[in-house]
Amino acid sequence: MNKHPHVAVVGATGAVGIEMIKTLEKRNFPVGTLTLLASARSVGKKLTFRGLAVTVTELTKDSFAGIDIALFSAGGGISKEFAPHAAKAGCVVVDNSSAFRMDDSVPLVVPEINAADVKQHHGIIANPNCTTAITLMALYPLHQAFGVKRIFASSYQAVSGTGAKAIAELERQVGQIIHEQPVTKEVYPHQIAFNVLPQVDSFLPTGYTKEEMKMENEGRKIMHHPGFRASVTCVRVPVYRSHSVAVSAEFEKPVTVAAARAVLQRAPGLDVVDDPENKRYPMPLFTSEKYNCEVGRLRVDCALDNGLCFWVCGDQLLKGAALNAVQIAEELVK
Ligand SMILES: NC(=O)c1ccc[n+]([C@@H]2O[C@H](COP(=O)([O-])OP(=O)(O)OC[C@H]3O[C@@H](n4cnc5c(N)ncnc54)[C@H](OP(=O)(O)O)[C@@H]3O)[C@@H](O)[C@H]2O)c1
C-alpha cells in the first residue's frame, strides 16, 4: 500500500462522510490526495479538508482509477453496485454498509479486537454495525477474561444513526410541537420527538429486527466466537448523537465487579465512567464527538449465573462508523 494513499470518501456529504473527512484530518492520516464522491445532487459542493476546499464529484463506475483506499458510506445499494468496481480497479474498499459484512471472503473488523483480519482482505473490508461495535468495545475484553456465553441487551439509538435527514426530522418535529403545529413524518414511521420507537430496521419472520440480529451474527464473526448468543431489542430515541446499550452478559467463569472493572480499565478505546454515588455514568451527551466509548453501571447480574450488567455509550458516527473505518485504513498503511 502507498504510504501516502489517494483516498476517496464515497457519500462524503452524508452524516458519516462528513465525520470521515474530519477524522482523516484529526488523526493525521497520511492522505496523499482526497477525492470526495456523492450523488449528482451534490456535484460542485465544497467541503473543507486541511483548510482547503475540496469539490465533490459524482460517483460513477470510473471514479476509482488511481485511488488506493475508498471509504464507502452511501448505503448498501451503492456499496453493492460500486464497491466491486473499486476493488477491480485495485482500490481497497472499507465499507460502512451491511452489504458485505457476513460475506466469508470479507473481513469484518474492529481494530481493537481483530485488526489482524484486515490482512485477509480481497479488496473489500467491512465496518461493523454501529450498535454492535460499541457493545463489543466493552464486551470483548470481558469475553477474553471470563468467556462470554450470551447477552441480553437493549439499545437506545440516536437519530443520526439514520443519517442527515433523521437529524433534521427530530429538529423539525421538536419545533412543530413547541409551536403547536401538526407533526410531519418523513423518515420514521412514527413521531420521534418526545417518543421512543421499538423498531430499528425492518422485521424478520422471527419478530426480531435485522438490526437486532446483527449483534449475534456480527459479534460471532468479529470475536471469532461462533457459539456467542445475543437477544437484543433495538430502540430509537430522540437523541441527536451517540448510541447507548444496556447489557446483561453471562460468562463461563465467575465474574466480580472489581475483576471486570480492572479488565475494562485496561481495554483500548474504552473509558470506565462508573461512580454511581456521585451520579457519574456514561451518557450520550458526553460521548458525542469523542473517540473512546464509555462503560459504567457495572453490577453483578441478579438474574444470571456468572452474570454482569453494564451500560455502554459511544459515538456511533465515530466508533460505529467513521473512526473505525479510518482505523482500518491505518492498519492498511502500517
Ligand atoms: N449514521 C450512522 O451512524 C451510521 C453508522 C454506521 C454505518 N452507517 C452506514 O453508512 C451509510 C451512510 O449513512 P449516513 O448516515 O451517512 O447517511 P446520509 O447522511 O443519508 O448520507 C448518505 C450519503 O450517501 C450519498 N448518496 C446517496 N445516494 C447516492 C448515489 N446514488 N450516488 C452517490 N452517493 C449517494 C449521499 O450523497 P448526496 O448528499 O449527494 O445525496 C450522502 O453523501 C449507510 O450505509 C449507513 O448504514 C451509518
Notable traits:
alpha/beta; seven-stranded mixed β-sheet; 31% helix; globular; binds NADP nicotinamide-adenine-dinucleotide phosphate
Low-confidence stretches: none
Secondary-structure-derived class = alpha/beta
The profile of the biggest β sheet is: 7 strands, mixed
Q: What multimeric state do the chains show?
A: single chain
Q: Tell me the helix content.
A: 25-40%
- Topology, number of strands: 13
Order of helices and strands: EHEEEEHEHEHEHHEEHEHEEH
- Percent of sequence in beta strands: 15-25%
Give the overall average pLDDT.
97
- N→C terminal distance: 9 Å
Ligands bound, unique = NADP nicotinamide-adenine-dinucleotide phosphate
With helices defined by DSSP (H or I, 4 residues minimum), what is the helix count? 9
Q: Strand arrangement, largest sheet?
A: 3-4-2-1-5-6-7
Gross morphology is globular
Alpha-carbon Rg, integer? 20 Å
Could you please describe the fold and organization of this structure?
With 334 residues, this protein is of the alpha/beta class. 31% of the residues lie in helices and 24% in strands. It is built from 9 helices and 13 strands. Strand 3 and strand 4 (52-58) form a beta hairpin. The radius of gyration is 20 Å and the shape is globular. The structure holds NADP nicotinamide-adenine-dinucleotide phosphate (NAP). The site of NADP nicotinamide-adenine-dinucleotide phosphate has 29 residues, from helix 1, helix 2, helix 5 and helix 9.
